[in-house]
């Protein structure tokens, strides 16, 4: 007798239909309408066909949040291990030490990279992490105003707005100067007794590396400093912990995670130790087991939704554990020297790119140092024409910030992969198009 | 063995990029002082994580019957689909004509989710189940704002997942809890009493966290709708009812899906997940943007929803998870999905019957995909029994949830486990009762580490090396 | 835990192909009576092998210093290369214009192997190192047949790999063994005495299995060539001399490579390997067919070698292994390959020095990539110490080989292990000497199983369930 | 101090150069000449570029030894696990039980499928396994003649010749009749006192399922029967053990191994228990450990080269362990019902293919049942023309057997994947070409 029959027998029923007798006939479904099952190899055939309709062999100058970077294959190997991939949230730590230790190491690596005290075990992406940071600031100081740079992209602002909507917080933009950096005077004038947090970006939404962010802690008064950074840039740039950040946020996709059409991503959140009990999400702590042996475990769960319910510091349940593993293994493989090299090459390539475009009369909008994304003055929308030539790039600033005054602003992005050959191909294509 | 932390491993960095670059490219005032990442060989990193992997339980090693978490076997073909270069290496800002395959998959998935749920429009953007809930809450909020109604309360059953009240609070709502009745279903009288002009929505899982189908769901819908409020479906347990009924048929207005649960995408040790949200047509314009449209010729990202709440995450959702769910759905088709639910419910009721002579299994007897037992009648603690289970090379159930059952163990076998697995699991649970309290409290002892001092973890708070 | 055999696992088959077919399509007289394969779910199969995988040591878990086996870390990018669909899913009979990429890789690999070895022509066809030896032996045979000389003997040093004499015998040759001298090198006098008109070839590894470089190799070549015989290079130890010297410079006529050893392709638990053969120009026409040629425009399979021995395997060799070796070679380049050998030799001599106060390490003191110690002076058995090593979570060396060292342990650290690994390995080997014989004989005890009754295995001969 | 410096210090040397002082200057190499190291991501870039020059999206009607079959992705998952992939020959069985048990299961599964007593732990490929079988036959009975069918492909014959060359055995072809099956009379007339083995194929080199092979054991006299079979066909066909085979050989690629341009492959060898000590290669046996617990171990190693050296039964060292894992997991996932379905669908599709080509006037050479490969009468060489239309197929018999009398013979191959849509595309293409 097959297993289903013998189970039905044991239950004293004739078919599984009977197990659904509690479902009112009035809500019964006729059919789903998806069709017949498709054999596994035909699923793969269809997937390969669809995938072939996506262009991946193009030269990539896209960025502004998602970057095409070198990912050591060992990172893919590690996150593909089913012992990690097909496990669940480590609710039973005795059999989950692998994941727990790897997250603890992620927390440590990011804290070292950011020079911050603590790092949580992940948010969904940089944008939602910024939203959570604003909520956290509110929990810390109860104030209502968030100041953000004018270079904040509309989509990021939209996510932030949604996160603070329930708190009725107010979001206000401060100005940037002609170098594309923080207008300190303008910002200073907006900081008042109701200011919960000042958000700074480095590099900012214009792609500019902004040393003015280092001075904000001096002028922020009672408010908190939330720094939104590029984690790769921290291979050389001053880290948020060195300039008085209270909370530091980043999008972690660049740390070993494929672009994947923009998801899943990794929201990084680090903060000062004092604020840990106000922090959202998950934390892994070190402790000992019954034999006194080092062991890792989820801690401060009393802040979390499964314990605290309506009073939790966030609703986070599934977060981005596997991607912390990617980031942790990426940072471990690159090491200080590797990450520094990647960051410096990025700056070098951005410089090469600007010089090469400059040679054909395409000027930078700002006379400042860019990290990955450089904003050029190009009136025409060149993106579709470039795509026809096998090149991806040319995002208009106005597609990211609708009412930006830099209406000719057009982005081209460099990473450590953007060698001179690729830049030359872009220059040649632009010469034809423009 | 005890695996050192990566910082304590000593070797030489083997990562290399051959192009040279001079540090002077960056002015000193912008530079960091020092950087202290590990400098080890790739081999050491691979070894480190390989060893850690062997200290981690996975559904590929054994069954993982965590209630409500739906830890079924994740088929390998779906991983293969998500690993195809043509899907992995595309940038979200590529022109639409260079990502038609990706948009096609997303469009199809939207359609499939609509058919499965009998809802009218879908956004794939939320990044996890709880994020789907939050999105749903924002839609509720915007809907009433748009209508000019000031509704401040969300009603939630006492058996609900913790994310429900947490999400409601994030949206700025007050949470009103309603009790369950003696069948483990929503107490209709209590619900009627709780509903008012302040009620924005009622959030409910069906079948609920006790594994019991809310048979009064139509009445519930009537109560909620009559009050002018919205009915929200927490899709964590959707895998119990594929093809049998649907949130749409039951009268729900907003639904979130947990693709990683229902459609077998890997849980990744706690994410990434994917939490699409579906709504009835009158709420379509409130969905986050963009959604994917098809004009008969090509697929495009539609940002033009009139009353959209805007965005809840950076781009278009957890694309690599969406891919896997899409694969799983077309692989199964109508018949396959129906079988998923039938077998999940069969497994649950079979295991329940094997255990009911030993453990108290409260409330309505016919279960769906999961059930909750209480160890209270046995004199043993659920926690201790859970730890004993670990010693048998299998994973324990969810413990101490839902809160309305004392010493609760919430067991969801899922459809991919065999009768032999269930028999073995029952044997272990029954065997546990023969052990002394002392013996149980000494468990586990066959695991990588033994019981962990959680108090110390919270007190000393060592969150980095 | 004890993992049942797959036959004893009970569940239901989940494999499916939806197309229907009627059994009557085949006449009864052609049909088999019954078929008794397992009928289990894919999930059960995945679990079974996942559990088995955790009962298997791998270089990704720890170092694997098996002498002559060259178990270095296999970089993951090479696996990725071999997994690309454009390489995996091509048929060997596809027209050449549809497989230009594959032929390009093979052509490049032929060229690289020529440069590394200073030989003139390469066949990628042999499927493993021993198969390369057999191919080389067939070339020797054909060469003398073509010359009309009746040479029946192959000379082999007493320190040689067992495959050398076995391959020679397969080719119908008689094996003549020559002893090693007190430096652990070929005894030149004995070699001169052994050489005659019957000598077809001398097969030798350099550095040899003692890890010692045969410093008289030029004299050896002269002796062999003066006798009209051929000099054969067993490439198992080629990884010690990348960029320093080469078989071609040393005067060898035929060489086989062990790509899986020298160029870090995974050993697969005992294969597949790849054993290309290279020859000097005067032997090119004897190579197996086809080889890959380039006409300046496109790549083609050349079957037109005049005196070819024909074929030694079905098609063009272990293509997926060739791909990995090609990747490894271009990744490393000249500098990388030189560093491979330098570090391998450094590691070997470092470990040797750490151990020489405790163990007898006979023969010439300067080692190459590996060395052989003897436990004889310690009063312990090599086997017992090997088993103790296993208990420390690391793999033991090759034991009881080469045969000319009593109680031999043959240790090849490889270049990918760190100083910390070597220090730890030395500590374990030194620690072992402090244990009593009884204690050592009780090892291992921390492994999945303990010492196995090999006599029973051979006597009862249970080779199937 | 970095690790290299401190190791050099310990050795009392200045650089690793000194470690090569034993290598005569007269044989020193100047440079290798491969060039500079290539960054990992550039290696992958080059590999992807080359791979894109291979056509994989074509409709595949190629076979004759290598087949494009459905491979459950779970098989790829299993053989990609580095715990198997990156391990070595299980010389230390205590830490290699995973591989050992999996090979033991492979031996068992194949023995059951073939209905033979024992199966070894792999040969390189079917052809070399046939060569080893001939050598084994010689070791068993010391006789000199091997009889093989006229339908044996030249490449297979060449490998066989090379394997028996050292034994000076004689290979003789026997005839096939007009149905493409064994000419029993001819074969019978060739079997004499010096005949070591009769090799039969089923399906044979013409693609034909040949019931005459079932009768050979009656006429083979003192010689051994070596059956070369298609392992997929055994899902429905009578297995070699049911018709008196002494040794059974197969190419195992079809059992879950990708085509990989023809390698690596898997040589399957099964035999009667009596001959085990004469068998080549590796064997895994069940035994017990010191605690009496079941354990697996390499056994009868005294036949092997590392022990027996010049007197070994073969020179096999590395064999195809990982591919036995593929075959074992493939057979376990498909099960009896799955394998039967695959075999029956193959026959059905071959029949559909023959009917469809028949409809446009392309006739089969033999009026017999084919398994995968069907031989058609087509004078023209259609292969290159078909390739231009995205179809792979049309191998000429004379490219496999140079002097075959069936000079118009052209193969088209079906598998379980060859659905009517694909057949229709072939028919349409052939109609245009012919």
Pick out its properties.
heterotetramer; A: 434 residues; alpha/beta; Aspartate Aminotransferase, domain 1; Aspartate Aminotransferase, domain 2; 2 domains; three-stranded antiparallel β-sheet; 36% helix; globular; B: 465 residues; 15 helices; PyrdxlP-dep_Trfase (chains A, D); glycine dehydrogenase (decarboxylating) activity (chains A, D); Probable glycine dehydrogenase (decarboxylating) subunit 1 (chains A, D); GDC-P_N (chains A, D)
Descriptive overview:
The complex is a heterotetramer, with 2 copies of chain A (434 residues) and 2 copies of chain B (465 residues). With 434 residues, chain A is of the alpha/beta class. Chain A folds into 2 domains: 59-69 and 335-433, Aspartate Aminotransferase, domain 1, CATH 3.90.1150.10; 73-331, Aspartate Aminotransferase, domain 2. Helix content of chain A is 36%, strand content 15%. In chain A, strands 2-8-7-6-5-3-4 form a 7-stranded mixed beta sheet, with helices on both faces. A 3-stranded antiparallel beta sheet of chain A has the order 11-14-13. The radius of gyration of chain A is 25 Å and the shape is globular. Chain B is an alpha/beta fold and 465 residues long. Chain B is 35% helix and 11% strand. Chain B has 15 helices and 12 strands. In chain B, helix 6 links the parallel strand 2 (153-157) and strand 3 (174-178). The model of chain B has no long low-confidence stretch (mean pLDDT 97). Chains in contact: A-B, A-C, A-D, B-C, B-D, C-D. Chains A and B meet through helix 1, helix 2, helix 3, helix 4 and helix 5 of A and helix 1, helix 2, helix 3, helix 4 and helix 5 of B. Chains A, D: Its EC number is 1.4.4.2.
